[in-house]
Amino acid sequence: MYAEQFGIQAPSDVVENAAKWIQWVQAGVLAGAAENDATIRFNLNQFWSLKQAAYPIANGTDQAALDRLDTFAHGFWNALETAKIYASSPGYWAYWTKFWTGGTPARPEALDAATAATAAAIGMQTNAAASAANPANAAFASGMTNYAQIQAANVAMDVKNANSFWNQLGVSPLGVPLWAWALGAVALFVLLSPSRN
């Protein structure tokens, strides 16, 4: 029932149980990744714990099926982290500073999400290749490997696109940046101050 949704025919009990967790991850992502972040991560961890316990004692067919499911797991993880690249906002003071001075405020959560999205894409590629141990997964492995490579390459562009939303022009009275006004004020103060001899 669950495993068949991921292209696995006649799954064993272990594979079916593992597929249940991935189906619940998929349902969480489709219902809203940001709202269901904790539940999605819980379900991913349950799947990975189950896979880690079952994989060493599973036969080759089940191992290939678990790798296929893990390809989906890493794909959903990549989607979750990519969404966080766009959804992560800068801290109040970082934003406020860049509002006045111009530029893009630091968004450390977005950078962490970008690192995780890259790791997820690499994991997706690794598991897709491993799933090819079952010849029935050959086309799946090839397609998902290519898709994972594209996802990994897109992370830098995702960060750039998300940062462009937060980029600030800065405040420039009469077209002169604030730093130039401040430097001019200091220079004027120095010139007009009485000398102390």
Describe the structure.
This protein has 197 residues and is an all-alpha fold. The protein has one domain (3-170). It has helices at residues 13-32, 37-54, 60-87, 92-101, 108-131, 138-166, 178-192. The protein is elongated. The relative contact order is 0.11. The mean pLDDT is 89.
Structural class: mainly alpha
Radius of gyration (Å): 25 Å
The percent range for helix content is: over 70%
Which residues sit in consecutive blocks of at least 5 with pLDDT less than 50? Answer: none
Apparent shape = elongated
How would you summarize the topology of this molecule?
Blueprint: H1 13-32, H2 37-54, H3 60-87, H4 92-101, H5 108-131, H6 138-166, H7 178-192
In short:
It contains 7 helices and no strands. The protein is an all-alpha fold and 197 residues long.
Question: Any key phrases for this structure?
Answer:
197 residues, mainly alpha, 0% strand, elongated, single chain, 7 helices
